[in-house]
Amino acid sequence: MANFHIIETGYFWADGGAMFGPIPKKYWHKRYPSNHNNMCLMAMRCLFIETDRHKILVDCGAGDKQLNKLKFYQPHNLKDLRAEIGKIGYSPDEVTDVILTHLHFDHCGGGTVFNGKQEVVPAFPRATYWLSRAQWDNYRKPMLYEAASFFQENIEPVFEAGQLRLIESEQPLCENVTLKLYDGHTPGQIVLFFENEGEKIVFPADVVPTSAHLPLGWLSAYDNNAALAMEEKKRFLDEAKTQNATLIFFHDAYSQMEKMMPSPHQNNR
Known about the structure:
Number of strands: 14
Oligomer: single chain
Radius of gyration: 17 Å
């Protein structure tokens, strides 16, 4: 028996040119709106999965520890992740697993919090935090291109608490839940595949951040290796379409999910 819940943790603004990289605005603006400053509204959407033995959180949003550092992105309507999980019926102590797709601040910031002594500690004290070794190594010795996206306080307290588990290849987490790795946006990003009563649910994080990014050539300037990101997106979409999987978009402020259908060709635009 399994069930899943979508948790909205808040929004921020990102430059449209950055979000859509090589795609001219006259094309991307038809698929994803922007304001007068060319800024696009971005969600931070997490996934919570219940099974008989596991309570799994996938990504954590940005949290509220670094708001002064994130002024450019204007984070707003932020939700307390632990309180949102409480609405589902679980305390932070009952979360068994936290999947960090990668360590960019908007995906992992809510995984640690301040305690009563203003020390940063894991938000889920009994959970195993899953991360790829490739992402961990890249965070510890970051590429200059993405170094500003990593904050030590989002992951070091988890490591120091002995709650971090690193994976090096695809592996099952539990029955019906599998973790797979994709490069391109950042090394070793985790994508979670989940089967729920015969339906395939996939959380692609920044492999496909919004529904507008489904076409192969629609990449982001935040992808640290565009050519590889395109190859990895094709590998991912080929599998998702074969499985008729439903994708849950982390960043799409207007569309939570979309079902993939098999097709003989994938268009770039």
